[in-house]
Design goal:
With 177 residues, the protein is an all-alpha fold. α1 runs antiparallel to α2. The longest helix is centred in the N-terminal third of the chain and has 22 residues.
Length: 177
């Protein structure tokens, strides 16, 4: 019994150290990926020994059964949370993907028309200028009309329906390379 209690504490501290260290760099050093399974393994050994120890105390009527069962159950819950499959990295949400360029080349003319219109209203519309100019030659008249309206909105003036005139204006304004 005298050796069991310090051994349990040592296993618990070791498990905690591996849990915190495997989550990121400590003192500039990262542990290899396989060490993520070390913490739950050590904690499982701790929990097995702890459970046997608590059940022995409960059977000898030296420890309340409800408290012992609660501690063992809580230990099992903590072990499940330590498993690598349970852990998730908390990270900021990824930057939203801009789908407008892909939608401008959709086979559906309604989608192209809507995408061109959306591009014309965007604050950073200059980055869509090349695609919008290309849509001036679209087979669908609604797409051409919305591309023209978006370019007029972007430029603040109208240079006509011809794509070449818009390309020239785009080069002057730095929209095109």
């Amino acid at each position: 019994m005298q050796v069991l209690r310090p051994a349990l504490y040592a296993l618990l501290v070791l498990s905690a150290l591996f849990t915190f260290w495997s989550g990121g760099a400590v003192a500039g050093r990262m542990l290899p990926p396989w060490t993520r399974s070390v913490a739950p393994t050590i904690f499982a050994i701790f929990l097995a020994i702890f459970t046997v120890y608590r059940f022995a105390l409960m059977r000898a009527k030296k420890y309340p059964a409800a408290t012992g069962l609660f501690q063992v159950g809580l230990g099992a819950l903590i072990w499940v949370l330590l498993l690598p499959s349970t852990r998730q990295k908390i990270r900021p949400p990824s930057a939203p993907v801009d789908e407008v360029p892909a939608l401008m080349s959709s086979p559906d003319p309604r989608v192209r028309a809507l995408a061109v219109e959306v591009a014309g209203y965007r604050g950073e519309g200059a980055r869509y200028a090349a695609d919008m100019i290309e849509r001036l030659e679209d087979a669908d008249p609604a797409v051409r009309e919305r591309a023209h309206a978006g370019l007029v909105r972007l430029a603040g003036r109208d240079v006509g329906q011809e794509p070449e005139a818009w390309r020239e204006l785009g080069r002057q304004r730095g929209w095109l390379r």
